[in-house]
Amino acid sequence: MIGSPGPLVVNVVQPYQAGKTYTCPGCSGDINPGTGHLVVVPEYEPDLRRHWHRGCWFKEMRRSGTYKSADPGLSLIHI
User: What are the residues facing 60 on neighbouring strands?
Assistant: First the structure.
């Protein structure tokens, strides 16, 4: 996901909204129904959206040097 062209939009999925099982690209683990997580969508390629565990996404942001905020919640609107 990192390195995709254009800005990324990060949306929070609340546990009550999560009705399917997804595979997190950060850890290849399941995101089960009822688990809060993030949906990361390339602004210009919405078909490439991916569902991430919150911790996996922020780990990826730290690894890539994109994430610098002391408060992870502050970076969720638009990256």
Answer: none
Q: How many Å apart are CA 78 and CA 39, to the nearest integer? A: 12
Tell me how far apart the alpha carbons of residues 24 and 22 are, in angstroms, rounded to a whole number.
6
Percent of the chain exceeding pLDDT 70 equals 77
Residues contacting residue 77 through CB under 8 Å, at least 6 positions apart = 10
Rounded Cα gap, residues 35 and 18, in angstroms = 6
Q: How many beta carbons lie within 10 A of that of residue 18, not counting itself? A: 18
* pTM of the shown model: 0.77
CA 21 to chain centre: 15
Helix-strand-coil percent breakdown of the chain, rounded to 5?
25, 25, 50
